């Protein structure tokens, strides 16, 4: 297949591109800079220049492809509203081309806010609706396009897609620990964070694309996603396939802080939950969330078996020492 990938040179995107090219797909990657374009060309990827604000580039990329994998996001934590608007506009542009074509459309989402007091599952419907919601409510927007001829697949990534070279949430937690001279966790440290290694995340995207391309015009429940029958309470699969890129259901923030402390040889301490934002800065609100998530249905559907190191193993091996 000819696959148009946004975020192709990014952290998850580059791992995904490697999996897609290894599987024999022809990949076209969106690149907003010369450096990104050069990196993609070095991997044998065709480059389309543009970014999330260049809606014409997005439409042209989608029109010239057999499938679209949308992984790019501005992730501007200083102005999340702007990131949400850009994400909404980008997905609307891509859908405007894909509707009526029955072509696969995979887009990145997350597991935050799906369930309280238990691990979330693929059957949980995202509560994020509308342009002002996180990620512009694009998961529900895309999954709602199933009846308009789009094979929509939501890729719900764990908040931590880890590995050497990661500059995401865990790198920020490590940086705070180094700056503060203490590796801290919020409250009693029992809130849980799911994780997945970057290599496993890239492989899941490739498997999800193969499933979407091989499934009938209706995916999700009709394709046999376990535990998410159409019409069941809270099920999202009646509107498309939902996949959880989660290898570890949920490590406690205390266990993460202890691993960071070992790596940096720092003391480990609790920070009162109401002072998390003061201690951790912008990431405090995220690190205080309980986001345990299951991927049992995804594993059964795709035969996906994560094999990369765990987050704690990565930390103990020093993968984030230079973060």
From TrEMBL:
**What is the top-level taxon of the source organism?**
Bacteria
Q: Where is this region: Disordered?
A: 117-140
Q: Which GO terms describe its cellular component?
A: cytoplasm
Q: Which parts of the sequence belong to the NAD-dependent epimerase/dehydratase domain?
A: 3-213
- Residues in a coiled coil are none
Single annotated GO MF: aldehyde dehydrogenase (NAD+) activity
Among the Pfam families in the record, one is: Epimerase
Q: What is this protein called?
A: Nucleoside-diphosphate-sugar epimerase
- Give the organism, scientific name: Frigoribacterium faeni
